Amino acid sequence: MVLVSVIVPVYNAENYLNKCLTSICHQSLKDIEIITINDGSEDQSLMVLQNFAQMDARITVLDIDNGGVSKARNLGMEQAKGQYITFVDADDWLELTMLEELFHACRLTGSNIAKCDLFWQEEIGSRQLYYPSKTYFTYSATVCLNKLFTEKGEKHFGFVSCKLYKKSFIDLHKLKFDETMNFAEDTVFLTRAVIKNQSICYVPKQLYYYNVGNQNSLTCRAMCNVRNNYDLLYKKLFEELQSGEVYEKVKNSFLNYQFEGLLVILHQCPAKPQAIKNALQSFLQAYPEVLKVKLMNRKLQQFIFLKLIKMNWLTLSSTLIYMKVKRAK
Q1: Whole-angstrom Cα distance, residue 78 to residue 287?
Q2: Is the dihedral of CA 63, 60, 20, 329 positive or negative?
């Protein structure tokens, strides 16, 4: 009996696959299958996958033309035979007890989705969080969405990874990744899943290692059309929140999420005051509600920057303040 199907989309990840797949193969929960999808890699990723498959019969290798991470994940879900599903990016890796702990959390609480925290793994290492309690928490849909739009770092909620999903729940609601998106598609999937399930079981442990330092991952290729990608993302999320009748309950958190997008968009602009000013004005014309946001979990400089925007002080001074405080994504 397959308890968990682990779905791993792979694109040009030969340098990371050994660590990723080793951490999955050595999980304390043994009754698993590992579905890897080589998404048209141009390096030796396929060879690495095939070598692992020869060593571990639980590994399946699907080789497809490049179609994006959403298509790869959807294919993996179609093939999955496990009672539960999880997603792992090919440049990340797991604590050896992750699948077992999330599986037991789902079984114990009856939840269709369980989540753990992650290690925000940079070159200098990652931060170990302190947990005063190891008790599982069940978060309502509203709490989940508020966290999804505002939490960052080790407790980041918006990744489809570091979670376990019941397969029958996914099938019942026909949950799939939007193949028209190649940016933050997991946030849309997770938003829909949370609304359908109305809750998530939270396991207060760091069990997933998110490799921040890899600039060649599937999620990094979309930044060339950053504003267009954010426009599509906000449209999809707004539709999900409206259809789920939860928009007003999470509105300020969603505006915080849009403000974060604005900061990223400005950071991607050429380092010229006029270019940044034009991008800012264009964004605010499209999303005027952002000016009504009550900022959460922000640094003092970002509060100052928002105040300058509200005062319409779109000068070189405000641009320089922004450029000093915004760090690269």
Answers
A1: 37
A2: positive
